[in-house]
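2024-03-11 09:14:02 DEBUG pipeline.ingest accepted 1 chain
2024-03-11 09:14:02 DEBUG pipeline.ingest length=211
2024-03-11 09:14:03 DEBUG pipeline.predict start
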Amino acid sequence: MENIILVGSGGCMRELLWQIEEYNKIIPSYTVLGYIDVVEDLSMGTAGHCKYLGDDDYLVNLPMKMGVVICIGDPKKRMQLVKLYRQNKNLYFPKIVLCDKGLAPDYSIGEGSIISRDCTISTNVNIGSFCFINIGSIVCHDTKLGDFTTLAPRVTLCGNVEVGEGTYLGVSSTVKQGITVGCDVMVGAGAVCVSDIEDGVTAVGVPAVAR
């Protein structure tokens, strides 16, 4: 069992904690030692058994080797935290893969990335570092995800898609085969991208257009 500490106390963290505990019932893999946040969250419901360890300083000053899992959907916030935590050479960022099926044998994944349960990751998919692929998303063949990409639940990338660094794709959004979505893009919930999306825009609608 690998010891890990979760970062965050919001919905992403609580959902991920639940998934880890369910996955451990099938393949014992992770021991969650507790969570980090600015303050202790006293309204965590069923996740209340997860111990509060302290704020970011706890990790920055931790004197032992430790796996850190950043459970935050916002790509920019993840970037900030990675930069902060890299000050401590004792910390590392494991790849968290919580699917027990639906994964092609030849996909690749970078450090600190998370694949949630019920996802499909097809052949020759390249997932960058610190990506967050949420429940039920589908990433089809030959797709590339830049570092710090977030896929909300039920996103579908339809093959040979390229997504730039720091982009967030909203719940149930779809990207047509062969399309490029730029860096630092926000794709709205339910949007359908049928043409390339340039860097730094918000794209919404069917078909998705920048605004």
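2024-03-11 09:14:41 DEBUG pipeline.report The chain has two domains: 2-94, 97-197.
2024-03-11 09:14:41 DEBUG pipeline.predict end
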